[in-house]
Amino acid sequence: MLMKNPLLALKSAAFKSLLCVPIAACLLTPSLRAALPGHNIAAGNITVNQNDTGNTTNSVTVFLSLAINDFRVRGLGGDNDTNSPLMSRADYAIQVGPDAGANFTNGILIPSITENGRDSGDTGPYAGTNFGICFIENQRTNINDINLLVGAYWIGTQGATNNGNNGGAGTPPEYNFNVAGAYFPYTNWLGGFARNHGPQDELGQANFGFTNGGTLNQLIASPGVVSNVNFFDLGTGKAFVTFTNLGIDSRVDGILLATGAKNESANYGLSQVNSNNGGWNLFVKDQGNATAATFEQDPIAFVYIPKTTTTVVSGRFLGNGSIAMYSGGSPGFSVTSNSVGTYELKLTNGLRPTNGVLIVTAAGGETINQDNFVSYQLNTAKDGWIIQSRDCPQAALESPAATESVAVFVFVPGPTPGFTVIPTNNILTTEAGGQATFTVALDRQPQADVSIGVSSSDTTEGTVSPTSLTFTHDNWNVPQTVTITGVDDALLDGAIAYSIILGPATSADADYNGLDPSDVSVVNADNEGGITVAPNSGLVTTEAAGQATFTIVLNTQPAASVSMGLSSSDATEGSVSPSSVTFTTGDWNVPQTVTVTGVNDFLDDGDIAYTIITAPATSGDPTYNGLNPADVSVINTDDDTFGASINIGVNILPVAEGKTNGYTLVLHSEPRRT
Asked: I want to staple 525 with a disulfide (CB 3.0 to 4.6 A). Which of 346, 555, 608, 673 is the partner?
């Protein structure tokens, strides 16, 4: 029997109004960090390669196939990477940001198994394919071991076979699986970690610092999430979470992800919507325990995903594949029941499964799904996932009843695959061999090497080095430099425009393969005497004082200073600064920037073209004296609209017989005639 939350008995409108504090989208106000996507979740897909059947730091090789918002695996170099917890068999140390020790108090980690069974070549009772569960653990202080990174998280995994060799509670072995993890900062998401806390925690469990199976008397959680208000430990592996005091109802407002939170006995978490009171029932189950209704009194962690949050895709689905909860105004996903215990989840909103992290946790507490555990993996087409629901302890596929929940999930989108090319225009080379550079980097970590070809559209004007770039899983975000070198000719042909062409990418990563980066525009300045103006067309200013720029540079070193005036053909549309430029024998090859600023008027006159006039040069060098550079074409965009507003102060203008009244009329733009 679940403990009744005392807050649920208080039904008065005044009380509910008092407690429904305004929190955006039912979340705590997010911090404004431009580097993070809107969801502020750090997440990653973790690939685990087993090197041997031992349990040392050399027994596994772990790497991230996708990382979002500085989600990291530890033990690969970096902050505190020599301190436990580190990688070993079925234990995968993670961190978010530079300080792993702060992760525990600042947010909650929720994991998932990302392969539907694995055979790692083990022998004995667990030979063959094993099916996994996962949980989290946090490194507590232990005075008997100073080489610990207190506060760091790790993900643990354990497995079970369906060949009848599962030996009961506490017996499923540590077994390696690929996993995913998502870290939800407490400043942005409602969640918590409930555990037993003893009077001498620093002694460690072996020295009775805290009690195995003890009351969950410590809650580390989001601000405002409080024990015996929002979290209730009911004993025997059961708990209750409610946010009704925040105006949140589990039946209509979102989902709750849950996970086991102790490195012991193959513990995993399940959540159930409490249809009577709008909270959630939570359970901790030992994968090896054969009794469906018997749970494990151990720590549990949870996080709430609001229906109103559209920066992620979340939902809950039933045994017949129907959708019971979804984020946003309509489901951004579909679910198909393919066979017993097997469901296919696909996104329907244009997001790609390979461009994000999926977290799936089990739903439980009902007749058939009471103790089922879930896992998933990409489908063959990589356009969705196959989610499996299995029964304890034999790990046989099992479909919950049609109206029972199978799982809850959240898909965390990552950065869009793409390229950052800087700069892509206003690049100048010279026929004297003058060089320029630009850089290329990937926008998102690839799952395989990404190569792009680099070439010049006109090798008589410029050459490029290197002729190809390759980005790996490790150096994807390190900008690679491309050097362009101007080529000489004997022609007095002035400045010639050409392009550096970045070819479509080739990669085994389908998200990058065929993706075409932006090409780079270049101008090669003549060295037979001349003045290069770039660009000399396509500039746009606005009546809101919007600006545009171009550059002027000499093609060859002059024998004396060279000056030229600059003016606008229509000062009512645009102004130019400076009004003249001068080049000396020392700075002739340093481009000088000219700024054009739009001028406002009150006419609805549309977009107006005008010109920045570059006057003929004056110089003691006869090669340059009188040389007339190209003028620059500009368009000034209008910000005025035709119309008028009448203000009468009220909806109806009253006029009494024999009296007068008035109103105001304001034009939106200056009239062309009175």
From this structure: 555
- Is there a contact between 91 and 156 (Cβ–Cβ < 8 Å)? yes
- Chain segment 180-191, per-residue pLDDT in tens: 999 999 999 999
Confidence class of residue 473 from pLDDT cuts 50, 70 and 90? confident
Phi and psi of 293, rounded to 5°? Answer: -90, 10
Give the end-to-end CA distance of the chain in Å, rounded to a whole number.
Answer: 84
- At 57, which helix (H) or strand (E)? none
DSSP 558-616: -SS-EEEEEEES-TTTEEEESSEEEE-TTTTTS-EEEEEEE---SB----EEEEEEEPP
| pTM beyond 0.90 | no
Residue among 519, 556, 512, 552 at smallest CA distance from 535: 552
Do the Cβ atoms of 389 and 297 come closer than 8 Å?
A: no
What sign has the CA pseudo-torsion 428, 429, 431, 432? positive
Share of the chain above pLDDT 70, in %: 84
Alpha-carbon gap, residue 531 to 534, rounded angstroms: 10
pLDDT tens figures, 392-449: 877 899 999 999 999 999 999 998 889 999 999 989 998 889 999 999 999 888 878 9
349, 330 Cβ separation under 8 angstroms: no
CA angle (53, 71, 217) in 5-degree steps: 80
Check whether the bond before 466 is cis (ω within 30° of 0).
yes
Concatenate the DSSP letters of all residues of 275-292 into one string.
TTTS-EEEEEEETT---T
Q: Hey, which bits of 186-229 come out as E strands? A: 191-195, 218-221
Instruction: Write the CA distances from 249 to 9, 28, 48, 229, 280, integer angstroms.
Output: 14, 17, 38, 15, 9
Residue type, 230: N
What is the set of domains in the chain, with CATH numbers?
6-15+41-413 (no CATH), 419-525 (2.60.40.10), 531-637 (2.60.40.10)
pLDDT for position 13: 32
**Higher pLDDT among residues 95 and 14, named by residue:** 95
- DSSP E strands: which ranges in 327-369? 333-339, 342-347, 356-363
Q: Determine which of 50-54, 196-200, 604-608 has the lowest per-residue pLDDT on average.
A: 196-200
Give the start-end residues of each E strand in 32-190: 42-50, 60-68, 71-73, 91-96, 107-113, 131-138, 153-160, 179-185
Report the chain's C-alpha Rg in angstroms: 33
pLDDT at 255: 98
Site of tokens 């006057």: 615
Strands 179-185 and 107-113, by their bridges, are: antiparallel
- Contacts of residue 499, defined as CB under 8 A and 6 or more positions apart, other chains included, come to 456, 457, 458, 519, 520, 521, 522
- Sorting pLDDT into bands at 50, 70 and 90, what band is 656? low
Q: What whole-number distance in Å separates Cα of residue 413 and Cα of residue 463?
A: 39
440 neighbors 421 (Cβ within 8 angstroms) = yes
531-534 sheet: strands from edge to edge: 531-534, 547-554, 592-598, 574-577
Residue 502 pLDDT level (bands cut at 50, 70, 90): very high
CB-side exposure of 463: number of CA atoms within 13 Å? Answer: 8
Task: For residue 563, count other CB atoms closer than 10 A to its CB.
Answer: 14
